[in-house]
Design goal:
It contains 22 helices and 22 strands. It is of the alpha+beta class.
Length: about 600
């Protein structure tokens, strides 16, 4: 609530209170002083309401809440009920002010993220620094970041060491220690020494700009509940306005008591105002989005909160999601006359050009060979020429196109290596299961939600991880098209969620009702395809997000039921003449405030 609004409400409340002490001052039976004090009170807070009401009236909008309040207040003055007329405007202003304050509070988390965007950067040219706008940064520019400054774009440290505050990016409270060679993300805050860095991206493609775009876009994505309220309000308001007219006209024609039924109709109008419905539902979802972003999860829209709450099947990618994604070589098995050293050298030379986690593990093996004409084929494998000979490394089907691959039983993921007509052998790698994977999977099982693993790895590796985390089942040796087909079949049983690392599974992330990318804010493909991005790679956040989504939907439904029930009761009482204008004001302002306060509880994600 702005300072100007507080002053206006304070003045209006003072005048309203004084009017009760002048009730005995009258002239010819009319309490002029009390009347003018109430009129001044109503005018202090209601002039903009009346102005907007007539502005909307001239634009053809006959049924917004400003017009309803104006008609009700002016009608009460006309009937001589000046205290009730002033109360309508005063309490409506208080309610509007508190609603705006609540909405501003709910947006704080979002505003804090958007504030992460730096306002300036320091570029180093010929030993001299110049201040530039972040939008002027180009790839490979050398930048200097002093203590207390924000990292302007994603970059790599070339000189210096420091600690970074990354809490606003991923919810991690502990500072991150960085030094030469480390990659750092825009929006981080330098808390230590001076850093010299090389820009990896332009500002428009940086992490902080992606986050800001996601957050701004999220507020525009409406759920079915929000869309329903928008459509409902368009029908509800004209219907109750017509009902109020009938309440006034028909009984008045029958009884002849025009003043009595006009007052009841005005009470009916005030009680029917749809503020509680129009404000509390979007506020609830916005509060939920803000709470999730503070914990390190970006949700692209409230529609995905609703979808997450009704999930019936959760699919997990294995590598990098349920497992740490940090592979290590467990064995190298050469075939026939090939040596172990030759097998490892060829494999390392080929995999040096790949960014796949398995490839990175193999590339660390000793090798004096160099591969050229490298070509990577999705999740199948990689090929290249070494000393003029074509080699392949990868899955059996891929390697089997150039030579016969024997059937083997490997206890972990196996990468096969071959030259044309010469099978060299295979290398086994293994990945550790994440410490929090079992708890995350068991959460969904306790709630009768299926937890399944989809992976391109071998059956033996998938089975080991499924047993360790307690999954309901697994599908192994899958291509991206196979994962898509399994997910589409599951949609007939209810909502689907796919959780992956966002690198190789963009099609499945996009096809699921809710696609969740783990720790992949730096991946453009993940940001584009996923509906939810968990920036800190914390798998334990997924169950909390689901619980938070369920709580959000329960809060929204409770607000709707409460508001409609109270309004229906007060509308009936208004027609019967029970309670009068004070109860009608509570049915509008009071119910709205209760619903808003209930929605604001979602700002804290447990």
């Amino acid at each position: 609530m702005h300072k100007k609004d507080i002053i206006k409400i304070s003045v209006a409340a003072f005048l309203f209170a004084v009017s009760f002490f002048t009730g005995g001052v009258s002239f010819d039976g009319f309490e002029y002083l009390s009347f003018f004090l109430c009129l001044a009170s109503a005018a202090a807070v209601g002039y903009n309401v009346v102005f907007e009401a007539f502005e909307h009236l001239f634009k053809g909008r006959f049924t917004d809440e400003n017009l309803l309040m104006t008609v009700a207040s002016l009608g009460a003055f006309a009937l001589g009920e000046h205290h009730e007329a002033a109360a309508i405007m005063l309490f409506f202003a208080i309610g509007e002010g508190l609603e705006h304050k609540a909405i501003d509070n709910s947006k704080k988390a979002v505003k804090e993220i958007i504030k992460l965007r730096p306002e300036r950067a320091r570029r180093l040219i010929d030993g001299k620094t110049e201040e530039i706008s972040p939008s002027e940064i180009r790839v490979n520019d050398v930048l200097v970041i002093f203590a207390g400054e924000k990292v302007p774009t994603d970059c790599v440290i070339t000189e210096g060491s420091s600690s970074l505050d990354v809490s606003a990016l991923n919810g991690e409270s502990l500072p991150r220690e960085v030094s030469v060679g480390d990659e750092i993300l825009s929006g981080s805050i330098n808390k230590g020494g001076v850093l010299t860095v090389r820009a990896k991206t332009e500002f428009d493609k940086s992490t902080v700009q992606k986050i800001a775009s996601l957050v701004l876009f999220a507020s525009e994505r409406k759920t079915k509940a929000e869309s329903f309220i928008t459509r409902f309000s368009r029908l509800y308001t004209p219907i109750v306005t017509l009902c109020a007219i009938f309440v006034f006209v028909i009984p008045s024609l029958i009884t002849g008591e025009w003043a009595l039924w006009l007052k009841r109709a005005l009470c009916f109008l005030v009680a029917s105002c749809p503020c509680a419905l129009a404000v509390s539902v979007p506020l609830g979802f916005f509060s939920s989005l803000g709470a999730a972003s503070k914990k390190g999860a970006l949700i692209k829209g409230s529609v995905y909160i609703e979808a997450l709450a009704r999930a019936r099947t959760v699919f997990f990618d294995k590598t990098g999601t349920l497992t740490e994604g940090a592979f290590s070589v467990t064995e190298a098995v050469p075939f026939e006359n090939n040596s172990k050293e030759r097998l490892c050298a060829v494999a390392a030379a080929l995999e040096k050009s790949s960014s796949h986690p398995i490839a990175r593990a193999i590339s660390r093996l000793d090798s004096s060979l160099t591969a050229s004409l490298i070509k990577e084929t999705g999740a199948m494998g990689i090929e290249g020429e070494i000393e003029g000979v074509l080699f392949r490394a990868g899955k059996p089907d891929f390697v089997g196109e150039i030579c016969r691959v024997p059937n083997i039983e490997a206890a972990s993921s196996a990468v096969h290596i071959a030259a044309r007509d010469n099978y060299l052998g295979y290398i086994s790698v293994e990945d550790k299961t994440k410490a929090d994977a079992k708890d995350a999977v068991s959460y969904f099982e306790r709630r009768k939600i299926k937890a399944l693993i989809l992976t391109g790895d071998r059956k033996e590796s998938a089975s080991r991880v499924a047993d360790e985390v307690g999954a309901d089942g697994f599908y192994s040796s899958l291509m991206p098209a196979d994962k898509l087909a399994i997910l589409e079949n599951a949609k007939s049983e209810g909502g689907t969620v796919f959780v992956g690392d966002g690198i190789n599974d963009s099609p499945v992330l996009a096809a699921a009702d809710v696609g969740v990318a783990m720790g992949a804010i730096g991946s453009a493909a993940a940001v584009e395809a996923a509906d939810v991005v968990i920036m800190n790679d914390d798998l334990s956040l997924l169950p909390r997000l689901h619980s938070h989504a369920k709580r959000t939907m329960a809060t929204v439904k409770a607000n709707l039921i409460f508001a409609l029930s109270v309004k229906l009761l007060v509308l009936i009482l208004s027609v019967l003449g029970v309670g009068g204008m004070w109860i009608a004001v509570f049915a509008d302002v009071g119910v709205t405030l209760i619903a808003v306060l209930n929605s604001l509880r979602l700002l804290k994600m447990k």
